[in-house]
Amino acid sequence: MKATRLQLILILCAIASGGLFCLLKFGYHESVKDSVSSAGVVFTASGLFFAAYSLSENHRWNRYQYTLEMMAEWNNQVRSHLDVIFSNFPALYQIPDNLNLSQWKIDEGRAKEINTATSQSQDATIRNSILTTMNFFEAMARAYEIGAVERDTVRESFGPMMLDLWHYFGPFVVVAGRSDHRDPWPPLRRVCNLWNAEYLRAVAAEAAKAADARCREAQGGSKTRPQTGS
Q: How many CA atoms lie within 13 A of 105 on its CB side?
């Protein structure tokens, strides 16, 4: 239901409540007053319910709109910086399995070179692209934390990319933090840690489920195994 329709309902409820108040104020038969009073309570409760529902719907609409705005900003202003990153770090295309993931990151020495690059150099262009992308993801993570965006949409559309870049450029994040004497992009760090923890829990639950299935299968097989004669 659109917000405008809900607002119309609220106006009608207010008018009805006002009319009931006038009937009570200026007199009717007592039995009529009692009935009208009961109806007034119902209308008031209904008005409060629709007010709460309207606020919820408006908040949902605002989340949807803000998500679209951030996706448009990504396409129009940030996506080109990601192209710069991928063109200079082709290893980003080659995501290893979990066993080798710890080695899949930028070299710390290279991270220092990029962080301290002079202006007008290629490394300065790379640094600008990394910072722009990380800043955007930080804004996205902050909006995700406070519920200002559609969380499922953000996680499905940007989650893998955010996790990959955060992991691969981990040494750069450390170097940048030392240089600026602060923790860079804390909302992004928190959201990536949250998603990683949820992923690990899901993997562990799936492994436990598979192990339980194998155990049940083994127990069932031992029960049905025919006994050999002596």
A: 17
Helix count and strand count (H, E) for the chain: 8, 0
CA distance 126 to 216: 54
The tens digit of pLDDT for each residue in 101-132 reads 888 999 999 999 999 999 899 999 999 999 99
Distance between CA atoms of residues 79 and 72, nearest Å: 10
CA distance 158 to 140: 9
Exposed/middle/buried for residue 176 (C-beta within 10 Å: 0-12, 13-18, 19+): buried
Closest listed residue to residue 141, CA positions, set 170, 114, 161, 169: 161
d(CA 43, CA 54): 16
pTM: 0.71
